[in-house]
Specification:
ten-stranded mixed sheet; 13 helices; alpha/beta; Rossmann fold; 450 residues; 16 strands
């Protein structure tokens, strides 16, 4: 479907998911949904606690390679779930799936650990909510889509900008309404800083299974501070800010504009400003073009210096013939062409409706309404046997495009993508990089072997 036709038709079918984000709106069942969490850190717990707020669940197991983190999460869960039960903890997701047979599995691990648990959960008959980006490499994403379809599972991706109230309002008022006119250029950007550096390699804590943490990735010695929450600054575990921040707003733009795969991706950049010896090996600078037939979407990353707009250090700017729309997780601004009043709306906060969010100090209050709405849509989609708002295939397109941006940067040339064959056109070397080599005995999932 042509993207402008999509926008016109979407105007009469805007779902307004987040506006319905009140407590326990999910369809009630005779019993709570058996739910397990793989990855009990920051956003794993955030997703689980928000799911508790919108659906009746029974947390039957938690998995993490950090025994201390898993135990702390289990204690928190026991204070929040209605039964008061403390769920058992596991160090291996395969044993959790075998012992507990969950109906829903949340995957909140570092990125390099997304694929394997998702595929195995689908095989075990569970529906899955996985954080973004869905995969470390492109073939992992292809395998995850194939597993969801082969085993008939509902798989939702945590790209919750699709369900964020103020962003949906901006879409409806200025894009779907036609107020902005023709859209010809979109800028996505991050001017956030990055990690200054890790301490030298050290002794692995007794409560940590570092071998399992590294898993299928290339080996990295344990450095204090990588875990928790700083693993994104190691290329072995992530795609840097491109796979973290770019994917959020690139996916939102695709959703708003009705875009599929870009036909060409060209990226330059590298680690230009970081000092040697930091043990951080992801890029700090990047400029990427995602090209469509009648639209250019660009990504700009600069993790040094100052932001050109203090109110929008991370976000997207949509340029239309009649005005400009700035979007971030905190607000939006609509700036009419040739003067006129600038319209600003701040994000929706629900701290009074959900005071328990404040008890979990890691909760992003600005993101909580969208996160809840995204989880609610997941529960409703599995009950209604429909595709969720951020179905795994949509998550794959957005994630793989960002992964290909890094590949273009690393190879030093543009990549032309064939969406049908899922291959880079005329570039055997690039296609060999669509799947990394797994370490040790780990087997890389593919659409053929799942």
């Amino acid at each position: 479907m042509h993207r402008r036709t999509f926008l016109k038709q979407s105007g009469s079918a805007a779902i307004g998911l987040a506006a319905a984000g009140t407590r326990l709106l999910a369809q009630q069942s005779d019993r709570p949904i058996r739910t397990a969490l793989v990855g009990a850190g920051w956003y794993g717990k955030t997703d689980l606690f928000h799911l508790m707020q919108v659906a009746p669940i029974d947390v039957v197991g938690l998995c993490d390679v950090d025994q201390q983190m898993a135990a702390e999460a289990a204690a928190l869960v026991s204070t929040r779930q209605a039964s008061g039960k403390r769920p058992p903890t596991y160090g291996d997701y395969r044993k959790l799936l075998k012992d507990q047979a969950p109906e829903v599995v949340l995957v909140g691990t570092p990125d390099h650990w997304h694929c394997l648990p998702v595929v195995e959960a689908c095989k075990a008959g569970a529906d899955v909510y996985v954080q973004k980006p869905i995969s470390y490499d492109v073939v992992e994403g292809q395998a995850m889509v194939a597993a969801a379809r082969k085993y008939g599972r509902t798989v939702q991706v945590g790209l919750e900008r699709r369900s964020t109230p103020h962003l949906l309002e901006a879409r409806d008022r200025y894009l779907l309404s036609g107020v902005m006119g023709k859209i010809g250029f979109i800028d996505i950007h991050s001017y956030y800083g990055s990690h200054r550096g890790f301490k030298p390699a050290g002794q692995v804590p007794s409560h940590m299974d570092w071998e399992q943490y590294v898993g299928p990735a290339s080996w990295v010695n344990y450095h204090p501070d990588i875990h928790p929450r700083s693993w994104r600054h190691r290329r072995e575990f992530s795609n840097g800010q491109t796979g973290d921040l770019c994917v959020h707003f690139f996916d939102l733009i695709r959703y708003f504009m009705g875009l599929g795969w870009p036909k060409r991706i060209a990226s330059t950049g590298g680690s230009y400003m970081r000092s040697e010896g930091t043990h951080v090996n992801v890029h700090d600078t990047q400029n990427t073009l995602f090209e469509y037939d009648d639209l250019q979407v660009v990504w700009t990353q600069k993790n040094w210096g100052t932001s050109p707009d203090k109110d929008y250090p991370w976000g997207a700017t949509i340029y239309g013939e009649k005005g400009t729309l700035k979007l971030s997780v905190w607000r939006y601004d609509y700036i009419p062409k040739n003067g006129g009043e600038v319209i600003r709306r701040d994000c929706v906060e629900e701290r009074e409706a959900y005071p328990e969010d404040l008890a979990h100090k890691e909760t992003e209050i600005f993101a909580a309404p969208g996160n809840r709405a995204q989880l609610l849509d997941f529960i409703q989609a599995r009950a209604e046997k429909r595709r969720p708002v951020a179905d795994i295939e949509e998550g794959h397109i957005s994630s793989a495009a960002c992964i290909l941006a890094n590949l273009s940067m690393e190879l030093g040339r543009e990549l032309r993508w064939d969406a049908q064959t899922q291959q880079v056109i005329g570039d055997d070397e690039a296609n060999r990089h669509l799947a990394r080599t797994y370490r040790g005995d780990w087997v890389h999932p593919t659409p053929q072997n799942i």
